From TrEMBL, chain A:
It comes from Sphaerisporangium melleum. Residues 261-285 are annotated as: Disordered. The keyword Cell membrane does not apply. Residues 276-285 have a biased composition (Polar residues). It holds the Pfam family ABC_tran. Gene3D superfamilies: P-loop containing nucleotide triphosphate hydrolases. This is ABC transporter ATP-binding protein. Transmembrane segments: none annotated. InterPro entries: AAA+_ATPase, ABC_transporter-like_ATP-bd, ABC_transporter-like_CS, ABC_transporter_ATP-bind, P-loop_NTPase. The keyword Mitochondrion does not apply.
UniProtKB/TrEMBL annotation, chain B:
PROSITE patterns: ABC_TM1. The chain crosses the membrane at residues 33-55, 91-110, 122-142, 148-169, 249-270. Keywords: Cell membrane, Membrane, Transmembrane, Transmembrane helix, Transport. It is a multi-pass membrane protein. Its main location: membrane. The gene is ssuC. One of its GO terms (biological process) is transmembrane transport. The keyword Cytoplasm does not apply. Belongs to the binding-protein-dependent transport system permease family. Residues 84-267 form the ABC transmembrane type-1 domain. Pfam families: BPD_transp_1. It is found in: Cell membrane. It comes from Sphaerisporangium melleum. GO terms for cellular component: plasma membrane. This is Sulfate ABC transporter permease.
């Protein structure tokens, strides 16, 4: 299949230029497993967009496509040459390097770090660690830190890439609620200070409402955009505030409808899946 | 607000990190030493019992007392050290060539797909080949010379070392590959900064196994390939047999065993240190 030739919509959001623009992006795994079906989505410069969906909606697939870790089967993804950083659910730090060296490596291999001396990179890494309140831990190894601390190091490493766009794949999914709340505050502060464009994947509705300027709801199997909520609540928000809970409830209801649709479809759908041996779970990871 | 968040984070960090200390050196050494010492005492006791039972006459199977006395006598003799020096020189040279060969072959085979298909199973096959089966060919090629011995030592050790590296490359955690990719590392840079360091633990096990094969091959070689006017441990063993010097034979065997164990412990210590630094050692407590 080739990319559609129809003219792209401008994709402008509130008059802001998009940092990331997906137009009719589809992804097929194997011969017939459709993970994403003509997804059209834009993230404006400096915008925080949360991507929400039940399992099997291809959220992670979508991020991988934007990150260039995978190729779309059809459609276009335009990042306008923006530098892209990504965080995963696991910190994915290199265990053979100290915390500081992990960040120094990112500084060294990123184009902006070319020509810098080791000393400059070390100083810059210390600054970045200070940004995530880990100034004293540069000499530690990743395994010596807690899960939340490692995720902050991963965030500092992503910042080291001096990216314009930050892709986050359930980055706080494995953390306890209190740590997660604190990291929400941290992320929000850093996002504002740096004017980052963020595409944040989660299955936690409240987290999405807590953080996002927009919450984009994806359907499951195949993934398509079914709702695009604008969240206008004042910042900073609290995950347990009435407004956040209220909006989350609305979105959760919509999400449940979507899940129910599959319950009705399930007996028919399980037939061909079982016959071909392709389980749709492949689309998530 | 920010100070508040950072204080909360600092509090959580402090809670997460408390109570992780290593025991002192003396207690760690003792914890490892006493089972070994007990095992040695047990073996000596069984040996003594077999001798006392009169199963074989004393001149064929001497007791531990006689053998240890003979060993003590040897340890005071210059010729013994000359023999050990010759054997260890061969071991080091042979092992070093094997490491180089294993590295080059392992790196090539793990990176280049056709090479993998062609030689992957051959390398594993070579590992199962008893080294003594190589000697007729080695003697044909190199006559009764040190080269013949080294040839077999290298063939014995290199496949294990290459396989260790290949396995390490294969089992590089995919998440680290993705992280490296996001940082912009490609091909050789990805290999150098991610894949090679990630395969270090497996490579180290390969070295350890390679050493075991090298040591066995070397002993077989020194028994088969006797080079005139050059004493070695294997040659001393052969001498002892020809002279029916049972205590000398057993004392030499103990030397072979001890050298093998000591080198193995060095690799074990390196492996432990690596696991501790990387946090692969997830013992509870």
């Amino acid at each position: 299949m080739t990319a559609p030739t129809k003219e792209l919509r401008s994709g402008r959001i509130d008059g802001r230029e998009p940092a990331v623009r997906l137009d009719a992006v589809s992804k097929v795994y194997g011969r017939e497993l459709l993970a994403l079906d003509r997804v059209t989505l834009s993230v404006a410069r400096g915008e925080f967009v949360c991507l929400l969906g039940a399992s099997g909606c291809g959220k992670s697939t979508l991020l991988n496509l934007v990150a260039g870790l995978d190729r779309a089967t059809a459609g276009t993804i335009d990042t306008g040459g923006a530098r892209i950083a990504m965080m995963f659910q696991e910190p994915a730090l290199f265990p053979w390097l100290t915390v500081s060296a992990n960040i120094e490596l990112a500084l060294r291999v990123t184009s902006t770090g070319a020509g810098t001396t080791r000393k400059q990179r070390r100083a810059r890494a210390a600054e970045l660690l200070e940004t995530v309140h880990l100034g004293d831990f540069g000499g530690k190894r990743p395994h010596e830190l807690s899960g939340g601390m490692r995720q902050r190091v991963a965030l500092a490493r992503a910042l080291a890439q001096d990216a314009d766009v930050l892709l986050m794949d359930e980055p706080f999914g494995a953390l306890d609620a209190m740590t997660r709340d604190l990291l929400h505050d941290e992320l929000e502060r850093i996002w504002r200070e740096r004017g980052l464009s963020v595409l944040f994947v989660t299955h936690n509705v409240r987290e999405a409402v807590r953080l996002g300027d927009r919450v984009v709801l994806l359907s499951s199997r195949p993934g398509t955009v079914i709702e695009d909520y604008k969240i206008t609540l004042d910042r900073p928000r609290r995950t347990d505030s009435g407004e956040v809970t209220g909006q989350a409830a609305t979105i959760t209801d919509r999400l449940k409808q979507e899940v129910l649709r599959h319950a009705r479809r399930a007996p028919a759908a399980s037939g061909p899946d079982a016959a071909t041996g392709t389980t749709p779970s492949g689309g998530e990871r | 607000m920010t100070a508040d968040v950072s204080q909360h984070l600092a509090g959580l960090d402090a809670l997460e990190l408390s109570g992780r200390e290593r025991r002192g050196l003396a207690s760690r050494v003792w914890a490892r030493a006493w089972p070994m010492i007990s095992a040695i005492i047990l073996v000596l006791a069984i040996w003594e019992l077999v001798v006392l039972s009169g199963w074989r006459p004393e001149y064929v199977l001497p007791g531990p007392g006689t053998v240890l006395a003979d060993l003590g006598h040897r340890l005071g003799d210059g010729e013994f050290y000359a023999a050990v020096a010759v054997t260890m020189r061969r071991a080091v040279i042979g092992f070093a060539i094997a490491v180089l060969t294993g590295l080059v072959v392992g790196a090539a085979v793990s990176r280049v797909r056709p090479l993998r298909a062609a030689f992957g199973s051959l390398i594993t096959g070579l590992q199962t080949m008893p080294s003594i089966a190589w000697f007729p060919l080695a003697i044909l090629l190199f006559k009764l010379s040190e080269s013949a011995i080294l040839f077999v030592v290298v063939l014995g050790a290199a496949p294990s070392i290459a396989n260790g590296l290949i396995a390490g490359v294969d089992y590089t955690p995919p998440i680290l590959l993705r992280a490296g990719h996001i940082l912009g590392l490609r091909r050789l840079a990805l290999y150098r900064h991610v894949i090679l360091p990630a395969s270090l633990p497996s490579f180290l096990s390969g070295l350890k196994q390679g050493w075991a094969f090298a040591w066995r091959s070397l002993m077989a070689g020194e028994l088969l390939v006797i080079i005139a006017h050059q004493t070695s441990i294997g040659e001393q063993l052969d001498n002892a047999r020809e002279l029916s010097d049972a205590p000398g034979l057993l004392a030499t065997m103990i030397v072979i065993l001890v050298i093998g164990i000591v080198v193995d412990m060095v690799f074990g210590a390196a492996d432990n240190a690596l696991r501790r630094r990387w946090g692969l050692d997830q013992r509870v407590g």
